[in-house]
Amino acid sequence: MYTEKLSKAKEGLTFDDVLVMPRRSPIEPRETEIKSVFSKRIKLNTPIISSPMDTVTEWEMAVAMSRIGGIGIIHRNMSRNEEATMVRRVKRAESLIIRNVHTIDQETPISVARNIMETKGIAGFPVVVGEKLVGIVTKRDMEFSERKEGKVKEIMTKDVVFAEDNIDPEEARKILYDHRIEKLPLVDKYHKVVGLITSKDITTRHKFPLASRDDKGQLMVGAAVGPFDIDRATLMEKEGADVIVIDTAHAHNENVLTAIKKLKKELSVDIVVGNIATADAAKDLISCEVDGLKVGIGPGSICTTRVVAGIGVPQITAIGDVADVASEFGVPVIADGGIRFSGDIVKAIAAGADCVMLGSLLAGTDESPGNEMIINGRKYKTYRGMGSMGALSKGSDRYGKFSGSKFVAEGVEGAVPYRGKVEEVVYQLSGGIRAGMGYAGCRNVQELKQKTSFVRITNNGLTESHPHDIRVVSEPPNYQLFQN
Ligand code: XMP
C-alpha cells in the first residue's frame, strides 16, 4: 500500500523546471497587450497585484499599483478601522468627479468665504442661490479683488462655465482647456450643482493612462479579510473596496468553505479566495461561487510551510491543476508566490494563470511600508512572512495559531534589496512579459495561456539559463540576484 502510494506520487514542477518554447512569431514585443483579469469583474491593464502583507501593501503601495494598471490588496494585520482608513485613502486619492461639492451662497460675506477657503484648504467654490449655480469664486478672485468688505456675488465670475452631469472626461478636459479654467461645475436639469471636475484631477488622470479605475474614476483597491470576519468584510465593502480577498493559508478547509458561502450572500463586490494548490480545491471553491482563485501553498520567498508542515505543490504544477478547472468555469487564477524574475510571470501565465501576486519583488520599493536598512553598504528594506514570529506576534492569524500565546511559525523575517519606485519595478516586469510574448508569438495574455508549450529542463539547463562564466560587475535592474 505504501510502496504503491510512493510509486503513484505525482511529479510537481516549478518555475526553474521549465521554459516556454519559442515559436514563429508575427509580432513585436511592443505590439503585445498585457491586460488581463484579477476577478470576474476586475479587469487590469497590468497583470500584477501586490500581496496583502504588512511589509508590502498599505495605502501608498495600493495607490501606486492601481495607477500603473495593477491593483494592491491592503493587508489585514491591523484593526478593522485602520484597514478601512487605508481603503478610504486609496479611494479618495483621485477622483474625476468630486461629488460632495462645497458650494457657497452668493450673499455670503467675502471675509467668511476667505476664512473657509483658508481653514479648509479649498481653492474655490461654485456660488449658488438656493441650490442653483449662479457663479464661481476662486482664491485668485479673492487675491486680486480690492474689496475686503462686501458679498461673494460682488467678486464672483458670473458667466460661469459649466457642464451637464456625467460628461465624458475627454470633453471635460477640452472645456477646461478651451476656457483656460481650473474648475468645471456639473449641473442637473434644474441647474443644481451635482459635481465638480478640476483640471488637476484631469491632469493626474492623463498622467496614468493605464490606471485601474472604478466607474466613478477612483482608483481601485482590494482589501484582505480573514474567512470568518464578516464584519471586516462588510466594512471594507462599505468603504469602497472593489474586491475582497479572503486571505487564508488553506482555503480548502470545510469551515472556510462554509464561511465563504455566507460571505457571498453578504457582499456584492467580487470575492477572490486563496490559497489553494489542487484541482479539488478549485472545484469546491468554484461551487461556492468565488470570483477568483489564488494559487500557492508554500512557494513564497519567505514561506516555510513546506518544510514546517511537509505540505505543498510546486507552483507551476499547482497553477496548471487549478487553471484546468477554473478555465472551464471562467474563474480567474492568480499565481501567488515564488516569482523572482519577469520570466517567472511568463511561465505562470503560460501554465494557466491570469495574473500574478508579488511580495518580495515589491517589498524593496519606496511605496512599501517596511523599514530601510543598510547591510554591508547596500540598502535593503525589511520583508517578513505573515506567518513569521514577528507578524504572528503583531496579531497575524493566517498561520500558526493553536492556543495560548505560543506560535508555530510558517515564515521568516528578513530584508530584500532596495529597488526604488514601484513604477520602475513594474515597468521592467511588464517589459519582460512583453518580451516573452514576442518570443512565443502571442499577442495577448489569452494567447500566452493557450498557444504556448513548455520544455522541461535539467539543472544543467538552469545553470545555462543564468549568466555564467562571468563575474557580473553591473546588475541590470531586471536581474538583481540576492547577495548575502
Ligand atoms: P513572494 O515569493 O512573492 O511570496 O515573496 C509572497 C506570498 O507568500 C505567501 N506568504 C506566506 N507563505 N508563510 C507562507 O507559507 C508565510 O509566512 C507567508 N507570508 C506570505 C503569500 O501568499 C504571499 O502573497
Overview of the molecule:
With 484 residues, the protein is an alpha/beta fold. The protein folds into 2 domains: 350 residues, Alpha-Beta Barrel (TIM Barrel), CATH 3.20.20.70; 111 residues, CBS-domain. The protein contains 19 helices and 21 strands. An 8-stranded parallel barrel has the order 4-5-12-13-14-15-16-17, surrounded by 6 helices. Strands 6-7-8 form a 3-stranded mixed beta sheet. The chain has a 3-stranded mixed beta sheet with strand order 9-10-11. Strand 14, helix 11 and strand 15 form a beta-alpha-beta unit. Xanthosine-5'-monophosphate (XMP) binds next to strand 17. This is Inosine-5'-monophosphate dehydrogenase.
Q: Which CATH-level-2 architecture of the largest domain?
A: Alpha-Beta Barrel
> What is the level 1 CATH name of the largest domain?
Alpha Beta
Query: So what's the overall shape?
Result: elongated
Largest beta sheet: strand ordering: 4-5-12-13-14-15-16-17
**Largest sheet descriptor:** 8 strands, parallel, barrel
- Identify the bound ligands: xanthosine-5'-monophosphate
How far the N terminus sits from the C terminus, by CA atoms, comes to 45 Å
What name goes with the CATH superfamily of the largest domain? Aldolase class I
CATH topology of the largest domain: TIM Barrel
Q: How many discrete domains?
A: 2
Question: How large is the radius of gyration?
Answer: 26 Å
Give me the count of strands: 21
Which whole number gives the mean pLDDT? 93
Percent strand: 15-25%
Q: Regions with pLDDT < 50 over 5+ consecutive residues?
A: none
SS class? alpha/beta
Bin the helical content: 25-40%
> Helical element count?
19
